[in-house]
Amino acid sequence: MATKRGLGKGLNALIPDEPLHKPKPVEEAISTPAVAEIEIEKIDTNPYQPRAMFDESALSELAESIKQLGVIQPITVRQVDKGHYQLISGERRLRAAKLAGLKTIPAFVRSTNDNNMLLEALVENIQREDLNPIEIAISFKRLIDELSLTQEQLSKTTGKGRSTIANYLRLLNLPPEIQAGLRADKITMAHAKVLASIPDKFTQIKVFYKILAGGLSVKKTEQLVQDILSEEKKEKKKKKQNLPDELRAWKESLKKSLNTKVDLKLTKEGKGKVVINFDNQEQLKQIMEKLKLSSEE
Fold first, then answer.
1. Sign of CA dihedral 286, 292, 293, 294
2. Residue 205's pLDDT is what?
3. Which CATH number do you get for residue 29?
4. Residues β-bridged to residue 264
5. Which of 79, 113, 147 lies at the terminal end of a domain, its last residue?
6. How far is it, in rounded angstroms, from Cα 134 to Cα 103?
7. Residue 63 is part of which domain span?
8. Could you please report the per-residue DSSP string of 9-65?
9. In the chain, is it the N or the C terminus that has fewer CB atoms within a 10 Å radius of its CB?
């Protein structure tokens, strides 16, 4: 029977003596897709890094892993000048390497401009699902605003569908407390999408706190929102129907005569106002002519 080698020798038996990424000189690493060993103190962080928060306990765990196994996945940097670098992606690994006491770190050395730095940092992170939904949304917004990208271009670059990008961008319209809840994993992206479908912020916040208080599932949240919106629709309809029959008939007659939308609002005290809509100045002129003829009669 063949002898099974490497078993019972602990973790060291599973780790090769040779490093996973044999470092090359920096000059060679720049011109080819090779890995260079870079001094950590010579690497500046990426000012375009989309990640805003780092979990300290997760960083400590990664640092312990790095102490045992080294940096498995190289970071990516660009050379700013000779012997000085700027991080493109991999800030979590860089931070953990510092915690682990490493003096150098394996890195892909690339040549890129500032615009591409933002793009590359975002794409690398979202493909590894390293960002929370709000951070992804902010990054999408920055790419659109700063690089003048369309949602279609962003979709092709990131591999995310246009509807997915649109859903992320809608998160930025949510009230701050809901965004904070999403960042802290108190609600899911699916919950946030349901909240974003609510027209007004007051109701969004009300539903948000109901989710937290009741631990509502996405399905129950959808039903709650549907019930609330249905009730609001009934209330609006009821208010519209509170007009006396005579005024309602007058409103419909005016609407037909002017050939445009007419709204009549009435208070409990009997005061009110008539709102006449028009699409352009020509239509307004026609409406004024009709009203003038009516007053002369």
1. positive
2. 92
3. 3.90.1530.30
4. 274
5. 113
6. 33
7. 15-113
8. S-GGGGS-SS-SS----HHHHHHTT-EEEEEGGGEE--TT-------HHHHHHHHHH
9. N
Contacting residues for 18 by C-beta, under 8 A, at least 6 apart? none
Q: Of 117, 20, 126, nearest to 74 (Cα)?
A: 20
Q: Where are the alpha helices (DSSP H) in the chain?
A: 26-31, 56-69, 91-99, 114-127, 133-146, 151-158, 162-171, 176-183, 189-196, 201-214, 218-240, 245-258, 281-296
pLDDT > 70 fraction of the chain, expressed in percent and rounded: 77
Query: Tens digit of pLDDT for each residue in 13-48?
Result: 333 444 445 555 555 554 444 678 999 999 998 776
Q: 206-244: buried (b, 16+ CB within 10 Å) or exposed (e) per residue?
A: ebbeebeeeebebeebbebbeeeeeeeeeeeeeeeeebe
91 belongs to a structural domain: yes
pLDDT tens figures, 186-203: 999 999 999 999 988 899
- Residue for token pair 């090769």: 16
Is 289 one of the annotated active-site residues of the chain? no
Catalytic-role residue among 37, 91, 120, 135: 91
Q: H or E segment at 84?
A: strand 84-89
Please indicate, yes or no, if residue 177 is contained in any of the structural domains: no
Find out whether 270 and 243 touch, Cβ atoms under 8 Å.
Answer: no
CA distance 223 to 242: 29
Q: How many domains does the chain have?
A: 2
219 occurs within a structural domain = no
- Is 64 a member of any domain? yes
Give the residue-averaged pLDDT of 46-75: 80
Domain termination residue (choose one: 79, 94, 113): 113
Beta bridge partners of 85: 43, 79
Q: Strand order of the sheet with strand 43-44?
A: 35-39, 104-110, 75-81, 84-89, 43-44
Q: What is the pLDDT of residue 97?
A: 94
